[in-house]
Amino acid sequence: MNYEEFYGQYLNLENKLAVASKNALKQQKSIAKDLAQGDLYSFEKSMTEMQSALSELQLQLQELKQLSDNFDGTAYLEEGDFARQLLSECERKNVDIKGDFPVFEILPFTVAVDKNTQQISIDRKKYKTIRPKYIVNTIVKMQDKLKSASFAAVRFATEISKVYDILLVLHGQKEGTDMYLMDIYQLMVPMARSRKDYSKQNFAYDISRLAVAGQIVLRDGRTFQLGTSRNNVKKGIRTLNPNGKEEFFATIRFYVA
């Protein structure tokens, strides 16, 4: 049984459970009112009706417990149903996804599944869920928030250009030489713990926005050009263009046009 089947069966039970809970609460309020008024006759009647409501509620809870026992969350994760549903939901929502269980890349986020705690983490934040639909909806909202945020392309390019200049000196290269973006990233964020706050995926997302920004000129008069590599899988940074199409950028160079 996959999660949506499990959840669908719960929805079939939900109305009965809600009615039974409502009736029990109604009788509890009646008991409180009867005793406040000193109406022992109505109190005894309310007690009887509450016992009946609680019995019905107990029946519904037993059905819910049986439903829960029939769904094996660990097997759902380990046997591939979770991954298949996650991929299917991403396809339905037109969300790009790469990777295999238990780690997936949904730019600019990394989604990791913990089968022991049956929860996921999106980058560093943990979520108590293994429902693919909820996960994808959450990520779409996060992506939309990022897209709506302003991006200072000139400032970002300027920060990269400073690291680029350092690499030119380190490698004894002339201005305008292509430098690998991953070398720039590693020099920008040298410590592993810092990369948790600004991951490779975050860097790739900023690079994709820089690519969209097009021709810009820095204060020193230089512009930039992004390039690819023959071995994009190893050397390139995977990005998505505004149409959701996969693109790889491997290098960058700064030069005076």
Main traits of this protein?
single chain, alpha+beta, five-stranded antiparallel beta sheet, three-stranded antiparallel beta sheet, 10 strands, elongated
Radius of gyration over alpha carbons?
28 Å
Distance between the termini: 61 Å
Mean pLDDT comes to 92
The main pleated sheet reads as: 5 strands, antiparallel
Number of helices: 10
Provide the low-confidence segments as ranges.
none
Walk me through what this model shows.
The model has no long low-confidence stretch (mean pLDDT about 90). The chain has ten helices and ten strands. The radius of gyration is 28 Å and the shape is elongated. Helix 1 runs antiparallel to helix 2 (about 40-70), helix 4 crosses helix 5 and helix 6 (about 155-170) crosses helix 7 (about 180-190). The relative contact order is 0.09. With about 260 residues, it is α+β, with helices and mostly antiparallel strands. The strands form three sheets. It has a five-stranded antiparallel beta sheet with strand order 1-2-3-4-5, with no helix packed on it. The protein has a three-stranded antiparallel beta sheet with strand order 6-10-7. A two-stranded antiparallel ribbon has the order 8-9. A hairpin with a 2-residue loop joins strand 4 (about 120) and strand 5 (about 125). Helices cover about 60% and strands about 15% of the residues.
